[in-house]
Amino acid sequence: MPSREQSLGIGERPPSAAAPSGTPAPGRHRIAQATVPAGTFTMGDSSGDRNRADGEVPRHEVRLSGFEIDATTVTNADFARFVDATGYRTEAEVFGYSAVFHLAITAPEQDLMPPAAGTPWWRGVHGATWRRPGGAGSSLHGLEDHPVVHVSWNDARAYCDWAGRRLPTEAEWEYAARGGIDGAKYPWGDAEVDEGGWRANIWQGEFPRINTLEDGHLTTAPVRSYQPNGYGLWQPVGNVWEWCEDRFHPATYRRPGQSGEIVDPTGPEDGEERVLRGGSYLCHDSYCNRYRNAARSRNTPDSSMGNAGFRTVALRPTDAPSREDS
C-alpha cells in the first residue's frame, strides 16, 4: 500500500483535517459488538508463510483482558452518521486525492496522478474520497453496508473520539481475529481460503491485471459476507486492511521485555507508521500473502487508500479518548 508522500509525490502539506468537537457519546456507535474473553494466546506466525520484513516472529505469549470489539468494520453508513453529525473532513478530502487501485478507477484521465513508485497498480486520484471511492465518477450508491475506505489512521481516531471508542491494539486485533483457535493460520483454522468455497474476499487470478472474480468482488464486499469467526467477527482477514492503535516497528516482537508472558501490550513508543492488519481484496498468495491472523503491515497515519478501513473497541474504565498527534 502506498504512503501519501512515497507514492503520490505531494509537496507542501495542507492543513490537517479538523477534529470533531463535543463530548464523546457511546450511543452514537451502532455497530454490533463481539465479546472477546480474557485469556492468553500465542502471538505471531506459526504457518511459515511470514513476510520477513514485517516482523511476525518470534512467537510469544500474550495475556489480554476481556474486551468488546466491533463485529464488523465501520461501514459507509456508519461513517456518514459521524460526518453528518460533525462536519468532519477526511484527510483525503483535505489533501484532495487518495490512492485507488488501477482497475477500480472511475475518473477522467485528468484526475489521475502518475503511478505510485514501486506499485504501479496504485494511482493517486484527485477527488477520490470515502464518498467517491473510485474517483469523480463513483458514489456510495449500493455500498452503504460496505466498509468505509479512504480513511487514514487520523480519520479513524477522529471517529473513535466522536463515538467514545478507540482503535484496537495490535494484540487485541490478532487475538480477536483468531476467534479462539490459537496457532491457526486463518480465523476459521488452517484450511486454505478457497477450500470448499471462498472464505474471504481476496484476489483471484493474475495480480494485478486479471481478477477472475470467483468470489464475486473486484473491490469491497458487504461487511457481513462469508462467515464470522468463533468470537463473532466478520471478515477480519480480506476485504479491507484495518488500522490498529499501535505504532509499527519490525523488531517489536524482539525487543527487551518480549520474553515471557506479556500483559495487554500497547506496542512500541517510537515509529512514524501505524499498524494495519488483516489484508484486503487485493491480497494474493503471489503478491501480498497477508490475509492471515499473524500478518502485519503499516503506513503513515495520514495515508489513505481504497482498501483500508477500521473497526473499533469499547473503552475500558482506564481508557480516555483523546486525539494524539501522530
Unreliable segments (pLDDT under 50, ≥5 consecutive)?
none
Beta-strand content estimate: 15-25%
Strand order of the largest sheet: 14-13-11-15
Principal-axes shape call? globular
Largest sheet: 4 strands, mixed
Structural classification: alpha+beta
Please tell me how large the radius of gyration is.
Answer: 18 Å
Mean pLDDT: 91
Number of helices: 5
Roughly how much helix do the residues carry, as a percent range? 10-25%
H/E element sequence? HEEEEHHEEEHEHEEEEEEEE
End-to-end C-alpha gap: 19 Å
Number of strands: 16
What is the gist of this entry?
With 326 residues, the chain is α+β, with helices and mostly antiparallel strands.
Description:
The longest helix is centred in the first third of the chain and has 11 residues, at 76-86. The protein is of the alpha+beta class and 326 residues long. The chain has five helices and 16 strands. It has a four-stranded mixed sheet with strand order 14-13-11-15, covered by helices on one side.
Produce the secondary structure layout.
Elements: H1 4-8, E1 33-36, E2 39-43, E3 60-64, E4 67-70, H2 76-86, H3 91-95, E5 97-101, E6 112-116, E7 119-126, H4 153-163, E8 165-166, H5 170-178, E9 205-206, E10 210-211, E11 241-247, E12 262-263, E13 274-277, E14 296-299, E15 308-309, E16 313-314
Parallel strand pairs: 3-12, 11-15
Antiparallel strand pairs: 1-4, 2-3, 5-7, 6-7, 8-16, 9-10, 11-13, 13-14
Structural key phrases:
16 strands, four-stranded mixed beta sheet
